[in-house]
Amino acid sequence: MNMENNRPETVKSVAGGMAIDTAVTGEKNLKMDGTEETTIKMSARNLDVFYGEKQALFGIDLDVPEQSVTALIGPSGCGKSTFLRCLNRMNDTIDGCRVDGDIRIDQSDIYDRALDVVELRARIGMVFQKPNPFPKSIYDNVAYGPKIHGLAQDKDELDEIVRSSLERAGLLKEVVDRLDSPGTGLSGGQQQRLCIARAIAVSPEVILMDEPCSALDPIATAHIEELIDELRENFTIVIVTHNMQQAARVSQQTAFFHLGILVECNATNEIFTSPSDERTQGYITGRYG
Amino acid sequence: MTTGHHIVKSYDDELKALNDTIIEMANLTEIQFESAIQALMNQDTELAYKIIKDDDRIDDLNHEVDEMTMKLLALRQPMAMDLRNVVAAIKISSDLERIADYATNMARRTVPLINEGTVIRPIHNIPRMGEAVIEMLKNVVDAYIAGDADKAVAVWHADKAVDEMYVSLFRELLTYMMEDASHITPCTHVLFIAKNIERMGDHVTNVCETVYYLVRGEPLREDRVRKTRTDRLLTDDIETKE
Ligand SMILES: Nc1ncnc2c1ncn2[C@@H]1O[C@H](COP(=O)(O)OP(=O)(O)OP(=O)(O)O)[C@@H](O)[C@H]1O
Ligand SMILES: [Mg+2]
Q1: What is the residue-wise DSSP string for A75-120?
Q2: Residue B104 and residue B55 in contact, taking contact as beta carbons nearer than 8 Å
Q3: Which domain holds residue B137?
């Protein structure tokens, strides 16, 4: 068995006070049965988030395994987006938002004062619910990030980054002969893939997605899901979704949030076949609590 | 087992209808099985024919379950406990359908056995074996209704006694056949009947495993007390392909 390329299938539950305090990001964690290793790409420990006086997240402990998809599910207002925004410090931009606790990527504290936030956001890309291309050409939408981060030496290299990003986002074929037309002129599904191309153009390590398919039809959704599955080979993905089937289809690990707490986090197939918490069961089966 | 109701009420109704159909199937299967033993012991040809005819009703219910589950999977996309419930219904109904088929096979064997005329002694072991399996069937259906995983495990263990009864009956029949060649035909019928009952017990244990998974969300993984090699050969070697 090739230990290096193993995708983590199971990550031990981090809810319910299991012995995870020793988990360190960026280190291989040997599973209990010693057969498989998973690398923790990002981790949150004892994370509290406040909007002014109001507390939105309570003591969240969660590990995000590398090169896999983690789905965040839970009722509206439970704090999924809040958690996601902590991972790339997007909450810094919200007035009155305070974040306590520890968040690490590859073992380093992302709230370290010495850390450059712009560089952090290049390592951790984000795709939003509503596709939000810049009012520029398709080419410039994708070229923008590599340009400001100085990732290309010359025009040829930049062209190549744009081409390969569009290719990986599964959009190249559809737009190859109109790279100069505005990104806003694409269909919703194409715009979302453009935003994904833009996110991957800077070669991030982690991609955060907040309900990326909620505005898309089933075909466009299937394209994005297929894309997520491919991206997982190279990236670590955290996705918020309200669609249980989507979470089940695309993720390897699922975390269920409820009223600001992390109720349960486990291998996706466990969560959707036999969740251990009644609240998770009630939510995913569509029962009232 | 179920906590709370679905927000969409008709979903609850559909799941309930599914469970009710399984229970109806189980009740009919029990009746078929009990009748099969009765027909044999009372030499009741008429009852035997009735059993053969009534099997259609169970096949129909099995198809109903298939349709209901397909519809639930396609339209409701059940998750977690609901998903296990639907999958369990598919599995349990097909095990019940098989058990009922074995009851029909018993009835089919009973007719020529009655016509044969000779009553052979070992036949008197059949009701005891049959009752043991009927008891298992009743208990596992109770376990299904109550969501009682422990009870399902207890039933699962009870199958061992049935296997033992089969093995000892098999030996008795062998001796009997060797004593007198004219016993061979009736003994063969009885042997097949016993084999049918033994197979029913195996299907009941499948249901036990399904009920256990339904309730606990994990497979029943207790290492079954292994039969000795010779006993295994004896129980496995005559497969009733009727
Ligand atoms: N900018 C903000 N200012 C004040 N409160 C906020 C802000 N953003 C979120 N909240 C509050 O924090 C809580 C968590 O919100 P969050 O947006 O993280 O929920 P969510 O799980 O993403 O919900 P949804 O599924 O509806 O997107 C909610 O009670 C919300 O009202
Ligand atoms: Mg949100």
Answers
A1: STTSSHHHHHHHHTTGGGGSTTEEEEEEEEETTEETT-TTS-HHHH
A2: yes
A3: 2-235
| Cα gap B153→A125, rounded to integer Å | 51
A281 at the B interface (CB within 8 A)? yes
Choose the closest CB to A274 out of B5, B77, B80. B80
Contacts of A282 in chain B (CB under 8 A): 3-4
- Is A272 touching B (CB cutoff 8 A)? yes
Indicate whether residue A94 lines ligand 1 (CB < 6 A): yes
Residue B240, domain member (yes or no):
no
Give me the CATH number covering residue B93.
Answer: 1.20.58.220
User: Mind listing the domains of chain A with CATH numbers?
Assistant: 3-284 (3.40.50.300)
pLDDT at A4: 41
pLDDT, tens only, A56-77: 999 999 999 999 999 999 999 9
The alpha carbon of A224 and the centre of ligand 2 are apart by a number of angstroms equal to 19
B242 occurs within a structural domain: no
**How many structural domains compose chain B?**
1
Asked whether residue B241 is domain-assigned, the answer is: no
For A157-169, how does the pLDDT look when each residue is reduced to its tens digit (9 = 90+)? 999 999 999 998 8
Interstrand relation of A206-210 and A124-127 (parallel, antiparallel or unpaired): parallel
Measured between beta carbons, the chain B residues lying within 8 angstroms of A289 are 4
State whether residue B194 is helix, strand or coil: helix
List the alpha helices (DSSP H) in chain A.
80-87, 117-123, 138-148, 155-168, 172-175, 188-201, 218-231, 244-250, 268-273, 278-285
Taking 70 as the pLDDT cut, the residues of chain B under it are 1-3, 222-242
Please report residues of B whose CB lies closer than 8 A to that of A249: none
Closest-CA residue, ligand 1 atom 31, reads: A77
- Could you tell me if residue B145 is inside a domain? yes
- Say what the pLDDT of residue A289 is: 59
B16-43 confidence digits (pLDDT tens): 999 999 999 999 999 999 999 999 999 9
pLDDT digits (tens, 9 = 90+) for B202-231: 999 999 999 999 999 999 976 543 344 444
Report how far ligand 2's centroid is from the alpha carbon of A212 (Å): 11
Could you give the CA distance from residue A97 to residue A77 in angstroms, rounded to a whole number? 15
The residues pairing with A73 across neighbouring beta strands, listed in sequence order, are A256
CB contact under 8 A, A274 and B78: no
Q: Is B9 on the interface with A (CB under 8 A)?
A: no
> What's the number of CA atoms in the CB half-sphere (13 Å) around residue B147?
11
* Ligand 1 pocket check for A80: Cβ under 6 Å: yes
Is residue A187 helix, strand or coil? coil
Cα A45 to Cα A83, A113, A235, B30, B208, distances in angstroms: 12, 18, 22, 56, 42
Amino acid at A221: T
User: How many other CB atoms sit within 10 Å of the CB of residue B193?
Assistant: 27
